[in-house]
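so ive been stuck on this for like two days lol. basically i have the seq below and the ligand is fe (ii) ion, smiles is in there too. i just want the complex predicted, nothing fancy, no docking runs or whatever. if the output looks off dont worry ill sanity check it later, just need somthing to start from for the group meeting slides
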Amino acid sequence: MISITTRTKEFIQPLLYKDDDKSLDTIMYVCTTEINQGPWQNCTIISADRINGEFTKTHGHYHQENASDETYKVLQGKGVFVLQKKFISDGKWDQGRVKEVFFVEAEEGDEIIVKPHWAHSWSNVGKNPLIVLDNWKDGHTPDDYTPIIKYKGMAYYLIEDKGNITYVPNNNYKDLPQPRFISARDFAINNY
Ligand SMILES: [Fe+2]
């Protein structure tokens, strides 16, 4: 059965670059689940707001270790998909570090495949709502979200500066790798 969830600024406030306690009931994004449109199961609409310069973003999450790949497709708008890879050392996941970070630049029609070890979060870097579809059927557990909450967001914050996309490291993580901007097409070709 289709269900709709709205996410307000209060929901993502702990993950913001700069704390912002104004207008906490402002809707940041809306998720519609079980849409069953061909391969697509969920649709997320992300507002084009900026919060102290930071682009509106989704919460960000990991998947479980034995998860399948997930595919996203941009239906409308302009987004940057932030992807960060788990840092595994001696067989143990160090949640306070990440192995690699990509900022995948995506526009209408682009598809991005997410492999199990990559946390992911959308930022709407355009001037209109960003609408993305995904094929995720397996639901989530709290463990998918808790590392992102614990470290107050993804590894970098995306900020608008004079019309450009800039990034600021999240210093709650240790030894961050240099992030790489990449087009959705090149990300797919390289099969990261
Ligand atoms: Fe996901």
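Residues 3-190 form a domain with the Jelly Rolls fold (CATH 2.60.120.10). The first strand starts at residue 3 and ends at 8.
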